[in-house]
Amino acid sequence: MSKLANKHENKHESKHSTLTAAIDMVVSQLRTMALVLKHTFTKADTVEYPEKKPYLAPRYRGRIVLTRDPDGEERCVGCNLCAAACPVDCIALQQTVDADGRKRADFFRINFSRCILCGFCEEACPTYAIQLTPDVELAEYERQNLVYEKQHLLISGVGKYPDYSFYRHSGIAVDINGERKDKGQAQQEKPPVDIKGLMP
Amino acid sequence: MIEMIFKLIEITVIIALLIPIAAMLVWVERRMIGIWQDRLGPNRVGPFGILQSAADLLKILGKEDWVPPFSERSVFILAPVIGAVCVLMSFAVMPFSPSLGVSDLNIGLLFFLAMASLAVYSVVLAGWASNSKYALLGGMRAAAQTVSYEVFMGLSVMGVVLLTGSFNLREIVLAQQDGWLIQSQFIGFVIFLIAGIAESHRLPFDLPEAETELTAGFHTEYSGLKFALFFLGEYLGVTLISSMAVVLFFGGWLMPEPLASWLPPLCWFIVKVSFLILFFILLRTSLPRPRFDQLLSFGWKYMLPLALFNLVATAALKLSGVIV
C-alpha cells in the first residue's frame, strides 16, 4: 500500500506505472495470503508440555543437587566458594569438621525462589559436589517450600563425574570406607616433605 | 397477536443463536490463527478447546467493571451498548433461509447501511467519553475511517440493486436463482468486502484499536462486561458483513441443483458465511496494518473511483442489455 501511495504522490510517474504499481500491490497481498494459507497443512511446532516433555540436554541448568563420591560419601567440603560465587546469594552453608578430619557442610540451604539457575556455583565448586540437573519442574504452592535443605539437595549418585573422589586425590588424612588414608597416601601424591630435614 | 408472538420467538431464537456464535468466533479465530502460524491455539478447555469462550466469559464477568472517574459516565456506559445493538439490529433484515428472517423490509439494504453507519457512534462516543488520549485518537480514526469507507460501501452494492431491481434482501436472494451476482459484480464484491473490513474495524483496517500504537484505541479504558460488549460487537460485525456479502453476492441460501438437495437452505447459508469468516481471519493473519493516511487515500483515491466505475459500467451494460 505504501508503494502505491508513494507512486501516486510522485507526479513524474506516468499513468501506466501507477497502474503497474497497483497491480503489484494486489498481487503481493494475494501472494502473502496464499503463503499463509499453505500453513494450514504444516505441522505445529508446539510441544504440548505437561503431556509431552521436551528433551533437556544432560548439562541443562535446572534444579541443583549435592552429589556423592564413588564411595558414597558427601563430596561437599563446605568451602563456601559456591555461596561466594552466587550472584543472588541464595546459598547458605556452614562448614564442620568430623572427628576423622573430614570436612562437610553442617547445613546447606538453597533458596530456589531466589536462585536464577546460572550455574556459577557448579563452576566454582572445587570438588564437583554441587551440580545442576535437567529438572525444571520446581513449582510450589508456597514460597517457603522452595527453600531446600541439605537432605533435599543430597542425592545418592555421583552426578556428571562418576570417578572423581576429592579425598582420594587430596593430601588430607581421613578415613575412606573405614580405612585410614594418611598424608602422602593419596593418588599421585608424593610423601610429605620433612621440613626439619637438611636435604632439599 | 399470535403472529407477533411468533415474531418475538423468532427474534429471541436468532439472538440466542447469534450471540453464542459471536462468542465461538473468538475461539475459532484464535484456533485458526494458531494453525496458520504453526501453533495450536487454545485447545485445553473442553474438547479441542471449544469451551474457551465460556471460560473467557466467566473470567471477564469476574473482572472489575470500572468506570474511570475522569470519564463522561453516562456516555461511557452507553457507547458499547450502541455498538452491539446496531449490529444486532442489522440482522433484523437478514434473510437466513426461505422461512427464517425477522423482517422483509422493502428497504432492507438501506436499513443495513444505516445501522452500519450508526455503529460508528459506539466507537466515537467511547473514544470521546473515555477522556484519554489513546481512546480519543482511536475514536477520531474510527470516525474518519467509517465515514470514508461507508461512502463506497453504499456505492458498491448499488450494482446489485441495479441488477435485481430491489432493496429488499429476500428479493435480491431470489433474483440470484439463475446465477450468483458474484459473476457480474466481482468488483462490487471486492469493494464491499474491503469496506466491510474497514466498517467492522478488523485487521488490516483495525486502526481505531491498533494495539501497537494506541494501546487498545477506543476501548483502552474499558473493562469487564462493557469490554465484552465491544468484543461481541466486533465479532457480530464480522458475521454481519459475511452474511451480507453472502446474501448480496453469493445467492444467500441458494445453491445449484445437485448440491441444493444435500443440505437444508439454512445450512448452505451457514456454510457460505463460514467460508467468508475464515477469509476474514486469514486476512487478519496475513496482512499488515496500513498507515492512517494510506488508509484514507486508498479509500478516496482508488476505492471510490473504482466503485463509481463499477456502478456506471453496470448501469451501461444493463441498459445495453448485455447483462440482465
Taken as a percent bin, the fraction of beta residues of chain A is 15-25%
SSE order of chain A in H/E notation? HHEHEEHEEHHEE
Gross morphology of chain B is globular
Largest sheet of chain B: none
User: How are strands sequenced across the largest beta sheet of chain A?
Assistant: 2-3-5
Low-confidence runs of at least 5 consecutive residues of chain A: none
Mean of all residue-level pLDDT scores of chain B = 85
The number of helical elements of chain B comes to 12
Distance between the termini of chain A: 88 Å
Give a count of the beta strands of chain A, DSSP E runs of length 2 or more. Answer: 7
Distance linking N and C termini of chain B: 42 Å
How many helices of chain A in DSSP terms?
6
By oligomeric state, this entry counts as heterodimer
Helix content of chain A: 25-40%
- Average residue-wise pLDDT of chain A: 86
Q: Which consecutive residue ranges of chain B, at least 5 long each, have pLDDT under 50?
A: none
What is the SS-derived class of chain A? Answer: alpha+beta
Radius of gyration of chain B: 20 Å
Percentage of residues in DSSP E strands of chain B:
under 5%
Give the class of chain B from helix and strand content and strand pairing: mainly alpha
> Shape of chain A from CA axes?
elongated
Describe the structure.
The complex is a heterodimer of chains A (200) and B (324). In chain A, helix 1 (2-9) packs antiparallel against helix 2 (15-38). Chain A has helices spanning 2-9, 15-38, 81-85, 120-124, 150-153, 166-169, and strands at residues 64-66, 91-97, 103-111, 130-132, 147-148, 174-176, 179-181. The longest helix of chain A is centred in the first third of the chain and has 24 residues, at 15-38. Chain A is an alpha+beta fold and 200 residues long. Chain B has helices at residues 2-36, 52-61, 73-90, 108-129, 133-164, 169-174, 186-199, 211-214, 224-249, 257-260, 265-286, 292-320. The longest helix of chain B is centred in the N-terminal third of the chain and has 35 residues, at 2-36. Chain B is built from twelve helices and no strands. The chains are: A alpha+beta (200), B mainly alpha (324). Chain A binds chain B through residues 1-2, 4-5, 8, 22, 29, 32-33, 35-37, 39-40, 42-46, 48, and chain B through 34-40, 282-283, 285-287, 290-291, 293-294, 297-298, 301-302.
